[in-house]
Amino acid sequence: FMRSKMLDKVALTENIVSTVDIPAEEKVKPGDTGICVTRLALIGQAEINGLAMEVKSIDGFLDEKTPIVVNRVTEGLILVERRK
């Protein structure tokens, strides 16, 4: 198998130089403000710092276009509450 140089024909010879995007969760910190894009029936879409992302409400149900503030970010989950 090795003598036929078959492995050389199928082996990867290029270097991979691409990078992975930073998740939105790392761009958001507690205290950042935003607005609900969809109704938060505990989980929904919100725009925070100009980025659309999935968030979870700790204030229960929040209607669309409700102002929100980030309470905390844990394990890739963004917890938000109604802005007071």
Task: Give a quick set of tags describing it.
single chain; mainly beta; OB fold (Dihydrolipoamide Acetyltransferase, E2P); 6% helix; 46% strand
Structural write-up:
This protein is mainly β and about 80 residues long. It has one domain: OB fold (Dihydrolipoamide Acetyltransferase, E2P). The protein is about 5% helix and about 45% strand. It is built from one helix and five strands, in the order αβββββ. It has one helix at about 5-10; strands spanning about 35, 40-50, 50-60, 65-75, 75-80. A five-stranded mixed barrel has the order 1-2-3-5-4. The longest helix has 5 residues, at about 5-10. The relative contact order is 0.22.
Averaged pLDDT: 88
Which structural class best describes the helix and strand composition?
mainly beta
The ordered string of helix (H) and strand (E) elements is: HEEEEE
Indicate the percent of residues in helices: under 10%
Instruction: Tell how many strands the DSSP assignment holds.
Output: 5
State the strand order across the main sheet: 1-2-3-5-4
Biggest pleated sheet: 5 strands, mixed, barrel
Tell me, what is the CATH class? Mainly Beta
Instruction: Give the overall silhouette.
Output: rod-shaped
Q: Span from first to last CA?
A: 70 Å
Flag low-confidence runs: none
Question: What's the CATH superfamily, by name?
Answer: Nucleic acid-binding proteins
Kindly give the count of domains.
1
| Number of H/I helices | 1
Strand content: over 45%
Radius of gyration: 21 Å
Q: Would you identify the CATH architecture?
A: Beta Barrel
CATH fold-type name: OB fold (Dihydrolipoamide Acetyltransferase, E2P)
